[in-house]
Structure formats: C-alpha cells, structure tokens
Amino acid sequence: MIIAIDGPAGSGKSTVAKLLASRLNFTHIETGSMYRAVAWKAQKLGLDLSDAERVAETAKNLDLHFIPGPDGQKVRVDGEDASPYLKSVSQAAAQVAGYAGVREILVARQRLMGAEGDSVMEGRDIGTDVFPNAEIKFFMDADPVERGHRRYEELKAQGRDVDLDHIIEQVKKRDHEDRNRAVSPLRQADGAILIDTTKRTIEQVVEEMLERVQSYSATKIP
Ligand code: DC
Fold first, then answer.
1. Is 65 helix (H, G, I), strand (E, B) or coil?
2. Tens digit of pLDDT per residue, the chain (222 long)?
3. For the chain, which has fewer Cβ within 10 Å, the N-terminal or C-terminal residue?
4. Which residues line ligand 1 (CB under 6 A)?
C-alpha cells in the first residue's frame, strides 16, 4: 500500500509522515531529501547549479540510500552521511527540483522504492505524478502565517537569530515557486483528502489520518 502525502513547506508533512509510518509499520520515504541530496552533491562537486544537464547527470550517478537508525533516518550519499547538511540547501534544492531531467530520475527511483513494500511517501508530486494510483492520498496545508511561525520557532530553538516577518515572507515566496513552476507544480491531487493543520496538534492530525487509513482498509481489504 502507498500512502501519498503532499503539501507545502511547513505544513507538518514530514513530522506526521514519520509518525504515521511508525504507527503502521510502513517505510517512510521523504522525497524532499532526495532533491536536497542532489543539490548538496552538485554544490560539493563545484557545479554551476544553473547547468541543468550536469545537475541531472549528478542525480543519475548518485548512490543514495535511506538508512534507518535509533535517531531517525539518515541519508547516505555516495557512502557519506549527508543528513547534517541537507537542511541548509533549501534554495539550491528548490532550484534543482525545477529541472525536468532531475525529476525524471528521482521519480523513477521513488517508484522503485515504493514498489518494495508498504510506504508513506511524502513530497510535492506524489499523489499527482509519482503514484497517482496510491491507495490513499493526503494533501496537507496550513495558513502561511502559522507555517512561518512554526519555522521561526524551529530556527530559534537552534539558536539562530531570525526575523519573523522575513521568515513569513520566505514561506510565501517558496509557496509561490512550488505552486507555479513549469514542471510538476504543487497542487492537490484528484482524490486527495485535504488536511488543514492550522491550529491543530500533530497528535490530532495523525489520529485523523490513521482513522482514514483504517476506514479505507476496512472497506477495501477483505
Ligand atoms: O520538502 P523539502 O522542503 O525537503 O523539499 C526540498 C525541495 O524539493 C523543495 O523546493 C520542494 C522540492 N520537492 C519537489 O519538488 N518534489 C518532491 N516530491 C519533494 C520535494
């Protein structure tokens, strides 16, 4: 079974997907970290990120694995643990995610990963492009101001000196980029269940999603 979760940055996708996967004993596949891994590797190789062809070549050659562990999942790229670096390549990841050649390679890998067993796969185009026939699709969203607040709290907790208004503007800018890019723009897939996480706790959201999965299983699985 594939559970597809899409939504904008800060909607709570990753936290919820991880909990949902662990409650169901499914594999959690965070596809955003694959785009981040390509961006990180391309930068490490000193490539010009505007060279779509060379970036796609990097994606093609990348040896990428998700390694489960006691402190969560790690992303191994060409034998190296890239996890600590992936959060800091957001802008570069958004740039490489706009290249059709990169998407083609990563989407093919995501389909292979999903074919290996029950998965909760999250990203921006899982229910629309990667697995349009996923058994269950969710689209998570939240008010951009609240998403900005969440991001602000996260960065402050890391001891970063940040400005709330600037962060909210950044959230809105990334939404605009994700929803308006030429290839695979972010949108709610046909048949996706909309989950608005504004003013709701993670536990409430996970419970609602579990109920949806259970009612699906009760009707579809003999
Ligand atoms: O979810 P994230 O912020 O880690 O994603 C990093 C970038 O990759 C972001 O710009 C959106 C993009 N992305 C995408 O285009 N398609 C996906 N399936 C996942 C992420």
1. strand
2. 999 999 998 899 999 999 999 999 999 999 999 999 999 999 999 999 999 999 999 999 999 999 987 777 899 999 999 999 998 898 899 999 999 999 999 999 999 999 999 999 999 999 999 999 999 999 999 999 999 999 899 889 988 899 999 999 989 988 898 899 888 899 999 999 999 999 999 999 999 999 999 999 888 766
3. C
4. 9, 31-33, 35-36, 93-94, 97, 123-125, 178
